[in-house]
Amino acid sequence: MGTPPRVRQRRAVANDERILDVAVELLATEGWLNFLPSRVGAEAGLSRQSVLRRFPDRGALATAIWQHRLSPDLSRILAELLSAAGLLADESGSGSAPSATSGTPEALVSALQPLLNVAVPMRSAAELLVIAHFEPALHEAITGTLGAQVTAWCTPGRHGPGPVLAAQRAYLLEQGLGLLIAGRRPGIADFDALSAATQLMQALNSPTEPVNLPRTPAKHLDERTVPFDTGDPIRDLLLQAALDGVSEHGFDGVSVQSIADAAGYSEGTLWNRWPSKLTLFEEATERHLALGLKANHDWLQNVTSQYGQGVAEAVHAREVQRPTRTHLRALNLEQARLAWHHPELSEGIELQLAQFVSGYQVAHPEWTVAEATTHLHFEWAFGFGAVVLPLLHREAWRLPYDVITTPMSRSASEPSA
Q1: 147 contacts: CB under 8 Å, gap ≥ 6
Q2: What does the angle CA 395 – CA 88 – CA 118 come to, to the nearest 5 degrees?
Q3: Which residues cross the membrane (predicted)?
Q4: Which of the four, 6, 67, 143, 230, has the lowest number of CB atoms within 10 Å?
Q5: Of 63-72, 92-101, 267-276, 300-309, where does mean pLDDT reach its minimum?
């Protein structure tokens, strides 16, 4: 006798669930490079063919775990974050404007916990939010689920929120999504988030009226050719080719051969200068960030001197989120993703961030070390959130961010109570 149909059906459903559970775990711990049907099958106690019959490639498997495991959870977490701040009357995103007392710092800290202390499912969600920049099918799945919800929350209109509320929601979502991307740093459990949450709630409760933002262009963000100037012209070309390749295909999707070809040199020429693709990209990233930070600092200082810090930060958000700058955003996120899986990259980031903590304490002597470290973490994470949001809401760059960046800049310059 064969296996009864109902027994076979229950077994098939159980195997489906097992595959999805194992896939989430594997993606969180080993990343996209090792997210393979053969690995998932082995971890699930099933054959590779059994997995492939259900999901023909890893893109299909990634789409399945996003739709059935990750998107519902992340959507709920973000809705709870908006609600904790008093920015969401209901999950449709069309609720009335919040009252100034409807959110509290304590509630905000509680809602931020899943994004500050990132568990396995949300680690997988973060991985896919980055990889979606290089995988069209996954990109479509994300924009059609969480993206549709975020767009509804943050699109001003007659049947949606007003411009101020839409911008406030977008800003808080950027903070939350940024914390998700930055959530693998060591020591996060010891951070004191109440001070940062208090500052954020003060700004949310004191929005300013939107102003016409200056049209100041951020031409340095369009510079695809980086002036590396290492003293070795061949090295400069290979570094540039590495950045270009990763921004278009992701680190795992670009080969050493394609990088060498794009630079116009042999693969051997590349190997003579770097022992691995990772060390090549690490150098390219360090040099690119150093040059980019200086150019960005100079640009922000110029805009701030003319219009004030709050307006400058709003203009910067607009410029970073423009639809024409997808490659810039993809590169920024891929640099963060690689640090999750390569301790040597993560250690370098930690050393850089540690140097800023003392500066925060000089500016705010009332802060403890934990508070200063947390404020730095929030600020650093926000930069990642600003480049994630356009994946979910293509028109985010049009929002009047000054309604929140202006009060945020004022509260940041004043000692906390």
Answers
A1: 391, 392, 393
A2: 80
A3: none
A4: 6
A5: 92-101
Distance CA 341, CA 79 (A): 29
Reported as a single tens digit per residue, the pLDDT across 29-60 is: 999 999 999 999 999 999 989 999 999 999 99
pLDDT tens per residue, range 160-176: 899 999 999 999 999 99
For each of the domains in the chain, give its residue range(s) and CATH number, in order of start: 5-56 (1.10.10), 60-221+281-413 (no CATH)
Binned at pLDDT 50, 70 and 90, residue 2 comes out as low
Phi, psi torsion values for 326, nearest 5 degrees: -65, -35
Give the C-alpha separation, 324 to 334, whole Å.
18
Cβ contact 314:401 at 8 Å: yes
Neighbours of 32 (CB within 10 A): 21
User: Phi, psi at residue 171, to the nearest 5°?
Assistant: -60, -45
Residue pair 120/25 in contact (Cβ under 8 Å)? The answer is: yes
Q: Is the sign of the CA dihedral 344, 348, 353, 357 positive or negative?
A: positive
> From CA 285, how far away is CA 318, in angstroms rounded?
24
Output the pTM of the full model: 0.92
